[in-house]
Structure to design on (833 residues):
């Protein structure tokens, strides 16, 4: 079963880059609506019906952000009503809705992105550029939490020794200071053993490679090529102004030329690629199961 | 075939007058399993590091170490790194990367092995060691035993011919330790891997090793096949102390039959040579005082709301002036209950009383002053200063008040001390608060036999000066020797409780080697001392 998270990290990275880039720089209601729908769809598909609370929170955020713009920004020709001697315009309201749709869409994309891009996958991307940097990151990912737990242990040990009074602020701060200073010693001490363990296994005998669990399949190549092609199409249309949507002073949508239509369509395909992959896999699986 | 040869090796550390190793010569055959024993400071670790070029310390060196007839210094980088593997004591500190699979691949990455070959070797190794289940985990999620197994696997993945191990099981609990030794025996048997292991705890190692190398003060005392060497060594009390129970019993009885090494052989030895008309020693009665030092009443505790209970309705009563040992498996809640007693874990139901007073009635650290202290498992967490002297001044500890002498260690850095010395300094710091109740978490972890003996003596001295001691331990031999009462923990509750002779006599697995050797032949034997007395009373057949 090939679901979206089984792809090569580079593919995932490029895909998200393409989708988020367009969503962030195209203030076009169609693009934004597609992007928002796709982002929410992907997230729900991957997480199921869980996290209802966070969806409600994002919805609330969407409403608040959409309403803020017309309340503070009074440009536009169509006055809806007047509040506190200030006109509230339709254009400002629509702009507010578009802007908050963009923010929410990007946030949803990033939620999926951070779920998919675990530290292993990020390291793989670094590793293919510089194996050394990747090793340093991997070591810090290990060492930082270790440092934290040791500091906590020392703190507890010292507390149970009863050397520092808790109600005396000066004493407490001095105690924490000492814990911090001994942590440096501990880290160095620790570092020597780690360094020994590294040299014992041949570290430093020359250039090293970076191993990873991820393979680059033909499917990855196809997906990268299509993501980039769809991205290029949409961005060319955007660059030529075909997708420019004017909010102020009066709403003027771009003409729906064939080129614009193609751009919309290609972004739509791009956005729904992961949804299609996941849905297709699920169907296939169901079909197989029914046969088994 | 000879795989490793040491020829007239001498070594001294810089700024050190005495030699760390002197006139050392021996050779190791391919497929040998060599156990190296010796007291702390006899040069075991130094010797082991001499055999691995990358880890050889700086200092004055003469003589030569040869691998397959070639001096170590003439080996190329690849052979030196791959063919001689090294595993150290601390499982945590040896791990370099954050993920299990990455750690396995680390050595091969250094050797510029192509990705496809790494995949093959790593997957093969993961299968052999049973790592598959935690292959994609973070190393921080592993237990101590799993970490050490990972360290072994990530050395084995480089396909070494010789494996050097420096006290690999010192930081593990007994079950993980014997699993680890069993894995080594399997590697030795199935791959005819040459193994050289330095160990304090020889109970598990001696039966699987075919050669024994004994060191004393940097010199080679004996080297030869295990049984023969053990027989020669039994006259050296310092080495005998760390040997398996069967050997210790044999050493004390002065017998001329062949030396037993395992529990099975020990049993056979007793049955062959000694009668059993006297089956048990006179029962010792034990009466505790009536005042409780620590009381747990239906205590419940969990670390967070989502997690299961660690303590479930725990009831303990420890009386003033006794040594109380808590035994049990990993994760049974032993340490957790100790931390709860010290007020570090907040319980959610039940009550804890220390000397009859509820924990929360001790305001403003008065609990930790003149009442109760906790010595944690990792004693390094106790140290904050650069020398032992500062450390003791800091705690306002008076060295002359202690039941032991710390003066030779005064100007050393606490981290530079041996495990036993660290334990003593930490104990001194803890005793400075003049506790009436002392809580010890694994006081004998990683200690050699000599240091263990010393800790047992000190704990007994503390008891006679009126201090109540509660020790959480995995070490059954320790509990058998020093406890007044023992308790067995299982799933957050106490499941059995009693004085050692009854407690261990009723257990059939979780008991001392001396008890297992004499079960059914003698009754109520717990320590080697008991067994020796009974053998002598019954006399030779």
């Amino acid at each position: 079963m090939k679901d979206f998270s089984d792809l090569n990290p580079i593919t995932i990275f490029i895909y998200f880059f393409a989708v988020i880039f367009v969503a962030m720089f195209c203030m076009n209601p169609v693009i934004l609506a597609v992007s928002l729908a796709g982002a929410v769809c992907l997230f729900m598909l991957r997480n199921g019906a869980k996290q209802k609370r966070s969806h409600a929170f994002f919805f609330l955020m969407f409403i608040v952000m959409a309403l803020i713009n017309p309340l503070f920004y009074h440009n536009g020709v169509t006055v809806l009503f007047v509040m506190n001697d200030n006109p509230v315009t339709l254009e400002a309201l629509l702009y507010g809705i578009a802007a908050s749709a963009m923010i929410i869409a990007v946030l949803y994309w990033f939620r999926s992105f951070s779920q998919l891009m675990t530290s292993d996958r990020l390291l793989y991307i670094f590793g293919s550029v510089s194996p050394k940097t990747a090793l340093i990151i991997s070591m810090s990912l290990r060492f930082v939490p270790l440092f934290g737990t040791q500091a906590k242990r020392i703190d507890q040990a010292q507390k149970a020794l009863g050397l520092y009074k808790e109600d005396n602020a000066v004493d407490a701060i001095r105690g924490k200071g000492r814990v911090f200073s001994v942590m440096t010693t501990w880290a160095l001490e620790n570092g020597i053993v780690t360094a020994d363990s590294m040299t014992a296994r041949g570290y430093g005998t020359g250039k090293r490679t970076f191993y990873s669990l991820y393979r680059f399949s033909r499917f990855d190549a196809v997906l990268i090529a299509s993501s980039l092609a769809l991205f290029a199409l949409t961005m060319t249309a955007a660059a030529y102004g075909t997708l420019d949507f004017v909010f102020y002073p009066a709403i003027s949508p771009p003409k729906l030329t064939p080129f614009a239509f193609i751009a919309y369509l290609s972004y739509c395909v791009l956005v729904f690629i992961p949804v299609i992959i996941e849905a297709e896999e699920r169907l296939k699986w169901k079909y197989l199961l029914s046969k088994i | 075939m000879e795989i490793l040869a040491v020829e007239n090796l001498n070594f001294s550390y810089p700024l050190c007058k005495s030699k760390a190793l002197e006139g050392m010569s021996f050779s190791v055959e391919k497929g040998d399993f060599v156990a190296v024993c010796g007291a702390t400071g006899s040069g075991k670790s130094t010797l082991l590091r001499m055999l691995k070029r990358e880890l050889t310390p700086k200092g004055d060196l003469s003589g030569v170490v040869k691998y397959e007839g070639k001096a170590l210094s003439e080996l190329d980088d690849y052979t030196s790194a791959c063919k001689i593997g090294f595993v150290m004591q601390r499982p945590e500190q040896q791990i370099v990367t954050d993920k299990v699979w990455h750690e396995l691949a680390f050595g091969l990455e250094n050797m510029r092995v192509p990705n496809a070959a790494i995949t093959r070797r790593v997957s093969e190794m993961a299968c052999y060691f049973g790592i598959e289940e935690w292959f994609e985990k973070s190393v921080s999620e592993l237990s101590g035993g799993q970490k050490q197994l990972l360290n072994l696997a990530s050395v084995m993945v480089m396909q070494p011919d010789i494996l050097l191990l420096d006290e690999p099981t010192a930081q593990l609990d007994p079950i993980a330790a014997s699993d680890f030794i069993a894995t080594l025996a399997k590697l030795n048997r199935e791959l005819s891997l040459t193994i050289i292991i330095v160990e304090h705890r020889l109970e598990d190692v001696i039966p699987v090793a075919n050669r024994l190398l004994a060191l004393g003060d940097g010199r080679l005392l004996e080297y030869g096949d295990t049984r023969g060497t053990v027989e020669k060594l039994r006259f050296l009390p310092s080495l005998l102390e760390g040997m398996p129970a069967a050997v210790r019993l044999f050493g004390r009885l002065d017998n001329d039959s062949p030396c037993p090494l395992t529990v099975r052989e020990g049993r056979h030895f007793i049955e062959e040579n000694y009668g059993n008309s006297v089956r048990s020693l006179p029962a010792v009665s034990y009466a505790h005082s009536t005042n409780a030092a620590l009381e747990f009443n239906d205590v419940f505790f969990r670390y967070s709301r989502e997690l299961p209970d660690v303590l479930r309705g725990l009831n303990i009563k420890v009386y003033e002036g006794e040594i109380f040992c808590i035994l049990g498996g990993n994760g049974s809640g032993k340490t957790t209950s100790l931390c709860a007693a010290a007020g570090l874990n907040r319980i959610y139901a039940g009550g804890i009383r220390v000397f009859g007073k509820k924990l929360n009635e001790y305001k403003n650290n008065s609990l930790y002053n003149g009442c109760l202290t906790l010595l944690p498992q990792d004693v390094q967490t106790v140290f904050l200063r650069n020398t032992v002297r500062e450390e003791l001044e800091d705690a306002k500890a008076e060295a002359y008040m202690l039941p032991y002498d710390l003066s030779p260690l005064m100007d050393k850095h606490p981290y530079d001390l041996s495990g036993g010395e660290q334990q003593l300094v930490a104990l001194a710091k803890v005793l400075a608060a003049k506790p009436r109740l002392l809580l010890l978490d694994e006081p004998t972890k990683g200690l050699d036999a000599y240091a263990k003996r010393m800790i047992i003596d000190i704990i007994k001295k503390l008891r006679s000066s009126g201090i109540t001691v509660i020790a959480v331990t995995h070490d059954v031999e320790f509990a058998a020797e020093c406890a007044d009462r023992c308790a067995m923990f299982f799933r957050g509750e106490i499941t059995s409780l009693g004085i050692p002779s009854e407690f261990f006599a009723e257990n059939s697995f979780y008991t001392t080697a001396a008890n297992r050797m004499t079960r059914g032949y003698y009754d109520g034997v717990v320590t080697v001392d008991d067994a020796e007395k009974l053998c002598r009373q019954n006399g030779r057949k």
Chain B has three domains: 2-239, 244-286+509-541, 292-498. Chain B touches chain A through 69 residues (CB under 8 Å). Chain B has a mean pLDDT of 90.
